[in-house]
Amino acid sequence: MPTMMPPTLHLPLLDATTADLFFQRLLAEGNWRQYQLNLYGRTVTEPRLIDWAGAVTYRYSGRVLEPRPLSPLLCSLREQVERTLGMRFNHVLINRYRDGNDYMGWHRDNEPELGSDPTIASLSLGQARPFQMRTLAKTDPHEWLLESGSLFVMQPGCQRYWQHQLPKRALSRIPGERINLTFRQVQT
Ligand SMILES: O=C(O)CCC(=O)C(=O)O
Predict the structure, then answer these.
(1) Cβ of 109 below 6 Å from ligand 1
(2) Which of 57, 78, 180, 183 is 20 to 30 A removed from 19 (C-alpha atoms)?
(3) Which residues, in sequence order, are CB contacts of 179 under 8 Å at separation 6+?
């Protein structure tokens, strides 16, 4: 068992009706793409769709995310997150998981552009999904259920000493769709 907890915050940000409204509007306005990844010489299709927006270029997972303006909807979400945390973010990466078959495996958000020890604020909309963190020594994971409208904050220390994942789950347990927005501050 891990002997400590990662430095995180988990709080409700939007009520269920507002979260559903934002979810439906983001589904409709997103510029959703499913990418191919080169994994140890094999081409694999990423098990989720992505979109993004931000003021600066962000090199993420082997690709270059060019600057794109935030829509009024994304600006409004960012403002609520920034006001709640008293922090600024200049990039949002948006992941869309169509059901329990879509996932994101163990990783850290440790691209050099994020600085040495970033804070990442993660807003969940739609289907509730478990989210896990484990130490770099791969100890037993801690798990949270990320409900629609909740904000999960990975504070400094999380990307340095911990990995996180959104695990795959049986369709019978996770039949619905989820959108996750991670607000980041990319260094310029
Ligand atoms: O969808 C999630 O909650 C996790 C997203 C994530 O791990 C990431 O964007 O790095």
Answers:
(1) yes
(2) 57
(3) 23, 26, 27, 30, 94, 95, 96, 97, 124, 125, 126
